[in-house]
Amino acid sequence: MQKYYLCIDLKTFYASVECVERGLDPFNTNLVVADPTRGKGTICLAISPKMKMLGVKNRCRIFEIPPTIKYIIATPRMKKYIEYSANIYGIYLKYFAKEDIHVYSIDEAFMDVTKYLKLYKLNPIELAKKIIKDIFKRYGITATAGIGTNMYLAKIALDITAKHNPQNIGYLDEEKYKRELWHHKPLSDFWQIGRGIERRLNKMRIFDMYDIAHTEQKRLYKEFGINAEYLIDHSWGKESCTIADIKAYKPKTNSVTNSQILFEDYSFIKARLVLKEIVELGSLRLIESNLVTDTISLYIGYSKNIIKATGGTRKLSNYTNIYSELLKAFLEVYDKTTDRSIPIRRIGVNFANVIETENVQLSLFKDQKKIDEERKLELAMCSIKNKMGKNAIIRGMDLEEGATTMMRNKLIGGHNGGE
């Protein structure tokens, strides 16, 4: 049976939500979503379609918008965008079982529609039109759709083909893909080919998908290793991964990472306080997930004008998720490796080689009663935070000057949660 996938994208989602909330038409309104408190250098999370028509690029910075353009600036409201996204997911569930839906991002989702075409007595394009119309009627958000005979082709149909279709729908099968897009440029328009990969391909005198498909495979594997397999398959419009495969996938990663980009340059002492906060968040995350670690890593990035980074990795004497033990190790690495004369702008911590708590053998050299008491205390903190909010219970250090935990607890994905 021939398979068919939809890939639906909510057009300029954040900006469209802000326009809809104001009773405005995104295609006739100049609006950008950005946090004005971060200055003219802040990145616009989204711009309205009208701004794009005026030549403003998505993800631009405020100062890059021509002064002749008058526009509304909307502070990000991540809670509101998540609410809209969840409601639109509800529309997808009207048509398809959740097992046949893969949410790719807050504004994009894949659907395996193969078995539903006969049910609804519609072809893929008719079904896509029906869903797009439903989304707009219910929430005022314009959607675009890519249709493909595999997930890759559905995504490419969305990203490239749908843009040139007045109905905002694109369709590709393998033959149509080769016929219409083998010579499409630039390569970075294609899913999973970034600017860096494009430059490496160009150095090999490879400029389009036809070139990839007809290049000696040994050359590609030598340059890209195992990733050459994806480039080769995609150059022919092939993709073996299905939504069922994604649902069944279990990640092999065994690490937990937390990082923070500071809003301004921090001194060695102030950044040390933020490190303590980040380690606490990581410790609570490990405890809540019933995980322990025996290896920690620290990354310190300096002021944006300085290309430098320090840090290091430390093997612990035992597996743990206890804040006091983890903090001691991180501070030792921080104090030993951090340049105290340069302002700090980024802090990253990593808890590696994590395993489930049940798999850890108790140590004869540790005060197990004291460890259990501290773990119970931190579990109680997790419970309170989950029920009453992240700022319902905090440590005294979170009230010190330069602390960021309380502020960041109000953010979603690093942005203002809004109301």
Fold and architecture overview:
The strands form four sheets. Strands 5-6-1-7-8 form a five-stranded mixed β-sheet. Strands 9, 10, 11, 12 and 13 form a five-stranded antiparallel β-sheet that branches. A three-stranded mixed β-sheet has the order 3-2-4. Helices cover 40% and strands 20% of the residues. Helix 10 packs across helix 11 and helix 13 runs antiparallel to helix 14. The chain is built from 16 helices and 15 strands. The protein has 419 residues and is of the alpha+beta class.
Helix content estimate: 40-55%
User: What does the average pLDDT come to?
Assistant: 86
Q: How many distinct helices?
A: 16
Q: What overall geometry do the principal axes of the alpha carbons give? A: globular
Identify the CATH class of the largest domain: Alpha Beta
So what's the oligomer here?
single chain
Strand residue percentage: 15-25%
Q: Can you say what the CATH homologous superfamily of the largest domain is?
A: Reverse transcriptase/Diguanylate cyclase domain
